[in-house]
Structure formats: C-alpha cells, structure tokens
Write a structure and sequence with these properties.
By secondary structure, the protein is an all-alpha fold. The protein is about 95% helix and about 0% strand. The protein has three helices and no strands. Helix 1 runs antiparallel to helix 3.
Length: about 120
C-alpha cells in the first residue's frame, strides 16, 4: 500500500474514532431522554385513565339528565325548567365529546412516546 492510500485510511480511521467518541458522549443524553420519556409515558397514561373515569361518570350524569328531560311531559319540556334541563343535558353531552377528544389526544401522545422510546432504544443498541 502506498503512502497516499495509507494516509487516506488513517484519515478515515480518525473520522470513525471521532464518530464513536461522539456517540459515546451522546449515550448519557439518550439515557436521560429515555428516562424522561418513560416518566412522560406514565403521566400521560395516568391522565388518560383519569379522563376515561371522568368521562364515564359524566356520561352517567348526562344520561340521567337527558332521561329526566325525555320523561317530562311535552308541556313541561317546553317550559323554563324543561328548557334548562335540556340545555344542561346538551352541555353535558358536549363535555363528553370534548373528553373523548382529549382521550384520543392522550392516546396519540402515548403512541408518539412509545415510538420515541423505541427509536432511542434502537439507537443505543
């Protein structure tokens, strides 16, 4: 092997060693990120569970309010009290929909965190 090729190989080896050193420096950062992501994953899971429980309870209250309105005679439904019950039932149903959206967002966050954890674990080797 001539000197030019040997010199080129020495340069390549130096670059590879630099890359290995950089990756070694990144490992603790990746470990910290992984730990934070796992904490976030747990917190998002807890929040999702709490929202699901709240939504189930809100569904029950909403259904009771709607049933109260539906069981009223038509004349009372059209009255002030009936309209207030109907409006409350509508608002509760709307809140249930908003909670469904929040639960879906939490599920999407869980999936994104799972993907990030998988990528970091793959990068660490």
């Amino acid at each position: 092997m001539n000197n030019a090729r040997r010199k080129a190989l020495d340069g390549i080896i130096a670059k590879i060693n630099g890359a290995v050193a950089s990756f070694d420096e990144a490992k603790p950062i990746l470990d910290e990120m992984l730990e934070k992501l796992k904490e976030a994953q747990q917190k998002v899971g807890e929040a999702k569970t709490e929202m699901e429980e709240a939504k189930n309870e809100l569904d029950d209250v909403s259904n009771e309010e709607r049933e109260t309105f539906d069981n009223m005679p038509e004349g009372l439904q059209a009255g002030e009290r009936g309209q207030a019950i109907d409006e409350a039932a509508n608002n509760l149903e709307s809140a249930c929909g908003e909670l469904d959206d929040a639960i879906s967002s939490a599920s999407e966050a869980e999936n994104a965190i799972d993907s990030a954890i998988g990528l970091i674990e793959s990068a660490k080797g």
